[in-house]
Amino acid sequence: MDKNSKAKNNNSNSTEEEIKILQWNIRGIQSNFLELQVLVAEQQPQIICLQETKLNANKQKDIKQYVNYSKAAEPSQTNSAGGITTYINNTITQSEIKINQNLNIIVTKITTNKTITICNMYLPPNTLTRTEEILKILNDLPKPLILIGDFNGHSHLWGNKRTNLQGKCIEEIITQGDIHPINKAYWPHTFS
């Protein structure tokens, strides 16, 4: 997935409208907040999806003119990071779709010319991913759906040299969930 994706909102009864989405595994929002603010000012995305914010429930960061939907980091023995945030520009009609599960996932619904579900997900590395649980969540969500995040899945299908267990899980989710990836094998997998 990339830091700056565009999804076109097509509706035959209205003019075409672009939705700009900024996605970033920020690896700590406190230490990268200034860079995030610069990116937001330059790119002016309507939606920002961040993973590994490393924030607890009492230390969320707000961005002017954006509504903040956050799930706090829950450190464990295998993952000292975690935490995700979705920011949506306050000019967009929006609401959160609550999901009862233990995954790092935030689901929001936006309406511009068309209603779209945005699913921001973080799957920590070296953890057992529950393919069936993720598929059930995705199948139950309103369509159209944009699934965006850091899945820590490596696969030959999207240009990695090796396939790991997370990658196999994501391959199954793509196949069984009728999902169409927008990333390309030649896009960089990591940004600095």
From TrEMBL:
GO BP annotation list: base-excision repair
Protein name (record): Endonuclease/exonuclease/phosphatase domain-containing protein
Biological source species: Helobdella robusta (Californian leech)
Gene3D superfamilies with a match to the protein in the record: Endonuclease/exonuclease/phosphatase
First and last residue of the signal peptide: none
Domain Endonuclease/exonuclease/phosphatase: 22-175
PANTHER family reported for this sequence: DOMAIN-CONTAINING PROTEIN, PUTATIVE-RELATED (PTHR33273), ENDONUCLEASE_EXONUCLEASE_PHOSPHATASE DOMAIN-CONTAINING PROTEIN (PTHR33273:SF4)
MF GO annotations: DNA-(apurinic or apyrimidinic site) endonuclease activity; double-stranded DNA 3'-5' DNA exonuclease activity; phosphoric diester hydrolase activity
A Pfam family matched in the record: Exo_endo_phos
Higher taxonomy: Eukaryota, Metazoa, Spiralia, Lophotrochozoa, Annelida
A GO CC term assigned to this protein in UniProt: nucleus
